[in-house]
Design a protein that fits this description.
Metallo-beta-lactamase, Chain A; 28% helix; 7-stranded mixed β-sheet; globular; alpha/beta; 305 residues; single chain; 16 strands
Length: 305
C-alpha cells in the first residue's frame, strides 16, 4: 500500500486554499516527497506529517513552482539536524537549478551538517526497496529533462492464514519465513513449504505520478492497470489550444489517459484558479467516472484489491 498526501495542488501560482505543487508518498518506513513548491515546509507542518524521514525528494522538472521550496526546507532540516542525509532526484536541468539554489544562495560559503546528494534521473528504476521500486519515465512538458514516476510494489502471493493454522504453523517467525519463500520445519519434524500456505500470484499496488505534461501520447502503456494515476488538469477542454501552447493537458485528456490505461482511480491536481473544481471533475468523469480533484491535505490509501 502507498499512502499519498497532497501538500500543494495549485498550478503555477498559489491560491487561497491551494499551495504550490508537492506531495508525500509513504510506503512502510519510507517517505518520498514529490516536488517542493514554495511554502512546502509550512504545508508539512499544517498537514501534521512534519519533517520525519524526509530522506528522499523526487523532482519532476525544473520549473520554480516545483522546486523553490527546497531552499527553505533544507535550511530548516540542516538547523534541526534531524537527518544525516537527504537525496534529491531529478533530471540534469533540474539538478543544475537546484545546485544554484542551494550552493549559491542557501548554503553559500557554508557547509551544512546535512549531507545532500543529488542523483540525476534517467528512465528506469531509480530506487529499490525491499518489496517495491520507483521508476522514472520521460514526459513532454516545456523544456528538457521532465519526468513522471511509477511507484510499484512487487507481485506477491497472499498468505493463507487458515491453511497455515490447519497445518499447525505457529504465529511468528515461521510464517515470515514462508512468506519470504523459505520452507520451515515444525517441532514434530514435518516440513512445510511455501506452496502449502501461499495463494496465487497477485500484482502489487501501482501508483503513477505524471508531473506536468503537454500530452498523453505513450503514457497509457506506462500507466497500464495502475491502481491510481495522479495527473495534472491545468485546463478545461474549451481551452485546449491554450493548454497545448503552455505545455499542459486538460481534465478530459487526463481522463482519457486513465481510461486507456485501465486505471482504477484518477486524481487530478495542478489546479488553476480560472476553473471551479466541480467543472474539472465533471469534464473528467464524463470520460472516466472514478475521478476526484485533489485538495491540499487530502490523503489517499492506494492499495491493490
Amino acid at each position: 500500500m502507498f499512502e499519498l498526501t497532497f501538500l500543494g495542488t495549485a498550478a503555477s501560482s498559489p491560491l487561497p486554499k491551494r499551495g504550490l505543487p508537492s506531495a508525500i508518498i509513504a510506503h512502510d518506513e519510507y517517505r518520498f516527497m514529490v516536488d517542493c513548491g514554495e511554502g512546502t515546509q509550512r504545508q508539512l507542518l499544517n498537514s501534521g506529517l512534519g519533517f520525519r524521514r524526509l530522506e528522499h525528494i523526487l523532482l519532476t522538472h525544473p520549473h520554480l513552482d516545483h522546486i523553490l521550496g527546497l531552499g527553505g526546507l533544507l535550511s530548516t532540516l540542516s538547523q534541526w539536524e534531524t537527518l544525516d542525509k537527504v537525496t534529491i532526484y531529478g533530471g540534469r536541468s533540474t539538478l543544475e537549478r537546484v545546485e544554484d539554489l542551494l550552493w549559491r544562495i542557501v548554503f553559500r560559503g557554508t557547509r551544512p551538517p546535512l549531507h545532500i546528494e543529488l542523483i540525476e534521473v534517467r528512465p528506469g528504476t531509480i530506487f529499490r526497496g525491499e518489496d517495491f521500486e520507483i521508476r522514472a519515465f520521460p514526459v513532454r512538458h516545456r523544456g528538457p529533462d521532465c519526468f513522471g514516476f511509477v511507484f510499484e510494489e512487487d507481485a506477491r502471493r497472499p498468505f493463507l492464514n487458515d491453511k497455515a493454522t490447519a497445518l499447525g504453523v505457529p504465529q511468528g517467525p515461521e510464517r515470515r519465513e514462508l512468506v519470504r519463500g523459505n520452507p520451515i520445519t515444525l517441532a514434530d519434524g514435518r516440513v512445510i513449504y511455501p506452496d502449502d500456505v501461499l495463494g496465487e500470484w497477485r500484482a502489487g499496488t501501482k501508483l503513477v505520478f505524471t508531473g506536468d505534461i503537454g500530452d498523453i501520447e505513450g503514457l497509457s502503456e506506462i500507466a497500464r492497470n495502475a491502481h491510481a494515476i495522479v495527473a495534472e488538469a491545468t485546463y478545461l477542454e474549451c481551452d485546449a489550444p491554450l493548454a497545448r501552447e503552455n505545455g499542459h493537458i486538460t481534465a478530459a485528456q487526463a481522463a482519457h489517459l486513465a481510461r486507456d490505461a485501465n486505471a482504477k482511480l484518477l486524481i487530478l491536481n495542478h489546479i488553476s484558479g480560472r476553473y471551479r473544481d466541480k467543472d474539472l471533475e465533471s469534464e473528467a468523469r464524463a470520460v472516466f467516472p472514478n475521478t476526484v480533484v485533489a485538495r491540499d491535505f487530502d490523503t489517499f490509501k492506494i492499495k491493490a484489491e
